[in-house]
Amino acid sequence: MPVKQSEFKSGDQLSARSILTWRIVQGAVWLVGAVILFCLLFYPSLGVLLFWNILIPVAPALLVLATGVWRNVCPLATTILLPRHFELSKRRKLSAKQLAILNLIAILALYTIVPLRHSLFNANGVATGLMIISMAGIGVTLGFFYEWKSAWCSGLCPIHPVEKLYGGNVFMSIPNAHCDKCMKCVALCPDSTPNVNPLISAKTGVQKTTALLIVGGLPGFIWGWFHVPDEAHLTSLNAFFSVYEMPLLGFTITLVIYAILSSIIQPKFERRLTSFFAAAGVSCYYWFRIPALFGYGSFSKDGSLINLRNIMPEWSFTGITIITTLFFFYWLYFRKPNRKSWLVRPQFGNKHKTFAHKLSA
C-alpha cells in the first residue's frame, strides 16, 4: 500500500498492521500468478493470453513509475524469499565479484530468452510455464544459501537489469515489505539507493560490460524484436534461431551509438545519456506493443489482446503512442531526479547477534 515519502524514513519499521496488509497483497498477487501458471500448463491458450498479452505489457510502465511496488509483490520474489522468511536460509553474503557475474548472466539470459518468445513461448503455454517453474526452482535454491534478495532479485533475475534501467526516477519510495532488517547483503542495495541506474556501481570490467549491454543495447534490441513474426510451425534449426537476427542487429546499432556518445560526452552528462536510452527503450516498446494489442500489429494477430480494427481507426493508436513516448521522455529524461529510492531502507540488522540469539534460545 503506497504511502507518502514523508511518512517513512530510512530505519523506520513497519507496524504489524502494515506488515499484515502487505502480506495480504503479496498473497493475493501470488495467487494470481499461480492461477496464470496453472492456465499456462493446463489451458495454454488462456495462459498465454493472460501472461504475455496482459501481465507483461503492464510491467515496463510499472517499473518506470513504481519499481518498489513490483519488488514488493512480484510472485516469483515472494516464492524465492520463503526460505529467508522461514529462517531456512544459510544467509551467506555475495561478494561484489559474485554479484557482478550474476548481473552479467542475468542480462545474457534476458537477451537469450526474449527472442525465443517468437519461436516458442508466445505459442506454447506449457513451455512458458516450465520456464517460470525453472526460474522459481533456481531462485528458491539460491534463497536457501544467500541473504534476502541478493542472489536472485538483485542478481540473477533477468528482469533486474531492466528494473535498474527503467527505475531511475520513480514516483515515490514505499516501505520494504520483505526485508525486515537491512543485512547489507549486497554492496550497493538497488532497493535503497536513490535514483539507482546500471552505471551507478560500474567500476570493474564485468560491471562496465553489464551496464553497456543493458543501457546501449536494449532500445535497439526492442526495436528489432518487434520486426520478427511469431513462428507457429518451426521446420528447422535455422527457423528457430532466425528470431535472433533482427533483435541482435538493433542491439548492435544502438550499442555502438551509445558507446560512441558515452566516449565523447563529459562524465557529468553520463547520467543524462543513460536516462535518454532508458526512455528510448520503454517508448519503443509501447510504440509497437500498444497497436499490436488491439489488432494493429505488424504481423496479423501476433500479440493481439482484442481486435479493434473495426471500432477504432489506426491513427488513434498513433496518437496514443506519441503521447506515451512524450510521457516517458518527460518522466525519465526531462524530469528532475527526485532522490527517491524504490523502497525505504529498514533498520540495519546484526547477523552475528541474530545467530547468537538462536544459539542461546
Task: Describe the 3D structure.
- With 361 residues, this protein is an all-alpha fold.
- It has one domain.
- Helices cover 61% and strands 1% of the residues.
- It is built from 15 helices and two strands.
- It has a two-stranded parallel sheet with strand order 1-2.
- The model is unreliable at 1-8 and 353-361 (pLDDT under 50).
Keywords for this entry:
2 strands; 361 residues; two-stranded parallel sheet; globular
> Fraction of residues in helices?
55-70%
Order of SSEs: HHHHHHHHHEHHHHHEH
Number of helices: 15
Q: Count of DSSP E strands?
A: 2
Oligomerization status of the protein chains: single chain
Rg over C-alpha atoms, rounded to the nearest angstrom: 21 Å
**Count of discrete domains:** 1
Query: Beta-strand percentage?
Result: under 5%
**Low-pLDDT sequence parts:** 1-8, 353-361
Task: Record the strand order, biggest sheet.
Answer: 1-2
Q: What is the strand and helix layout of this fold?
A:
Layout lengths: L15 H27 L1 H30 L1 H6 L1 H4 L10 H18 L2 H4 L5 H19 L8 H5 L3 H7 L7 E2 L29 H21 L11 H5 L3 H20 L5 H24 L20 H21 L8 E2 L6 H10 L1
Summarize the structure.
With 361 residues, the protein is mainly alpha-helical.
